[in-house]
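Internal QA ticket QA-208
Title: Verify multi-chain structure generation after dependency bump
Assignee: T.L.

Test input:
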Amino acid sequence: MISFVLIRLLRAVLTVLLVMTFAFFVLRLSGDPALIMLGPDAPTEAVAAFRAAWGLDDPLWRQYLSYLHGIVTLDFGVSMRDRSPALDLVLERIPATLALTIPALILKVAIGIPAGVYAALHRQSIADRGVILLSVMGFTLPSFVLGLLLVLVFAVQLGWFPSGGQDSWRHAVLPVLTLSIGGIGILARFSRSAMIEVLGQPYIRTALAKGVSWRDVVWKHALPNASVPIVTIIGFMIGSLVAGAVVVESIFSWPGVGRLLIVSVANRDLAVVQAILMVIAATMVLANLCVDIAYGLLDPRLRARTTAA
Amino acid sequence: MTLVRIRDLRVAFDGVPVLHGINLDISAGETVGLVGESGCGKSVTWLAALGLLPAKARITGTVETAGSDLVSGGRSVLETIRGGRIAMIFQDPSSALNPVRRVGQQIAEALRLHRGLRGAAARAEAISLLDRVGIPDAARRLDLYPHEFSGGQCQRVMIAMALAGQPDLLIADEPTTALDATIQAQILALLTEVQRETGMAMVFISHDLGAVGAVCDRVAVMYAGRIVEEARREPLFAAPRHPYTRGLFDAIPRLDGPRSRLVPIPGTVPDPKNTPAGCAFSPRCARATSLCASERPTLLPQSDGRALACFHPVPAATLVSREGVFA
Ligand SMILES: Nc1ncnc2c1ncn2[C@@H]1O[C@H](COP(=O)(O)OP(=O)(O)O)[C@@H](O)[C@H]1O
Ligand SMILES: [Mg+2]
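Actual output:
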C-alpha cells in the first residue's frame, strides 16, 4: 500500500509539472503582457521598462527555468498588478470559493445519489421518469443560463435572495443552487445506471436465492458494488472544488478564485494566472489520488491490480 | 413425502410465453434431472418458482412447499423458503459470488439467516463448511475474495453457502457447465456425496445426459417450455420414447466402439415469439405427421410409468444399449 501511494504521488507531481509547462507556453504565446497591462498606446520606453522588470526579454528557456524553480519553491513571483505575492492572492481567495463549492458538493451527494438509487429501485415508475427528466435538464442546462434563470425568478421576481455580493449566507443560496443542480443530475443518472447494472448481476440473484432480504440485498450487496463508478464521479467533483465556480462566481460577483482567474487572464497577470493553475492542477491531481485509494478500499480486485502495478 | 409441488407453472416475458404449464413434483431425498437444449425453460422454471425472475416476468400457477404457495406468497414467504428450505446454485460460479465481499462473510450471512449463528460460531461453521466442500486451508481462505478462487473452487464455495442453510432441496442449475471436464467430475462427485450425507433432494439441471445419468433417479425432458417426457432413469435411458429425448441421446458424442456416431438434432430450438403450432418439436422431428403440425400432444402417463407427450413415439421395442452413457 505504501509503495502504491508513493508511486501515485510521484505520478501526481509529474502531472502537475506537465500541466504547468503547458500553461507556461500557452500563456507566453498568446499575447504580450506588457502591451495588455499598459495598453496599446503606452510609450515604448514604458513597455521596455515593464518587460525588463518582469524578465520578459530573457530567452524563453531561461524564463522557463526560473518559472520551474518558482513552482518547485512555491514562489510564483508577485502580481503584476498589485505587487503582492501571487500565491498569497490566490490562497486568500480559496475560502470564498470553497464556501460555495463545498455546500454544493454536499447537496450533489446528498440529493443526487439517493435520487438515483431510488429511481433504479423503482424503474419505470413516475419517480424514475421524473429523476431522468430532471437529471437531463440539470446537466444540459449551461450554468450561466441556469444562474441567470435563478436570478430572474428568485432575486428579481420574488426578491427572496440577493443576486450578487457576499455579505450573508443568503447571498450564497443562489450560487450554491446554480452550482449543485447540474451535479445532482449527473450523480443521479450515474447512481441510477450503476445500480441498475449491479442489480442485474448474477451475485444479486445469488444473494436473493440464499434468503437475504431485499433491503439487505440493496444495502449490503448492490450499493458497495455500485459505489465504484459513483466514487469516480465524486472524485471529478472534488477535483473541481477550486476551479468549478468560475462562471458562477462571475454571474454572482462572488470574490473567489474563479473571478480572480478571469480578471488575471484578462490582464495577462502571468504570476497570478500561473499560481491559480498550479492550485487547480494540484487539487485535481490530489482528488485523483484520493479516488485511486478509494477504489482500492472499495473493490478488492482493483486493490490487487494497483498494488501489483 | 412431496417437498415441492409445481402445478401449471407459466411464465411470460413482455407478453411472450416461454413456459407453458409445468407440472412437477419433487419428493424428499430424490434427485430429479431436468434436461433439454439451451433455451427450453429449465432455468426459468426454478427461477420462477423461487421468485428470482426480473419484475417484467408474468408468473401464474402454483409452487407449493411447506404449506405455502411461492407464486402468490410474496416476498416474506419467499425469503423464508429461499436458502433455508430450497437453495440454488448457478451455472457461472465466478460471477455468482459478490466480488467485493469475502467468501467467509458470504457464507456467514447464510448461517446467520438460517441458523442464527454469528461471530466466532459462524466463522467456525463457515470454516467447517469450506472444509466439507474440499477447499484446502479453509481457515485462511475464508478471508479471501471470490476473484482469488478458481471457477471450480467458486462452485465449491457456492455449494458450501447452499449447505449453510441446511436445505431440503438443492436446485443445481448447470453447476458444471462453465467448468472444465476434470473439475466437472469433481463437482458432480461432491454433489452426490453431500447429498448422501445430508439426505437433501436435488434438482439437477443440465443439457448433459451423461451427467444426468450419473446422478439422477428421475428425469424430466423439457422442450420449448414444456415437459415432453418424464420417467425414472433406467427406463428412460434404456428406451427413450420421445423423438426429442431420442435425439438428445443420439447427439451425445461417444467414444466407445465403431458404431458410435454423432447425430445432432437438425434445426434449432424455436424462438418463443413464434413457436410452431401443434407439437413444438414437429418441424425438427423425423417421425412427425400432419397431425403433429396441427395438434399439440399432451403429457400422458404411459403403462410403464413414464409420462410422454407424443403422437408417434419411438416404439418401445427398439431397445438400444445405453450403458456407455452411465459412465
Ligand atoms: N430475463 C429474461 N427475459 C426475457 N426472456 C428470458 C429471460 N430469461 C429467460 N428468457 C427466455 O426464456 C426461455 C427459457 O430460458 P431458460 O429457462 O434460461 O432456458 P434454459 O433451458 O437454457 O435454462 C428462453 O427463450 C429465454 O430466451
Ligand atoms: Mg439455463
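Spot checks passed. DSSP finds 14 helices and no strands in chain A.
Status: verified.
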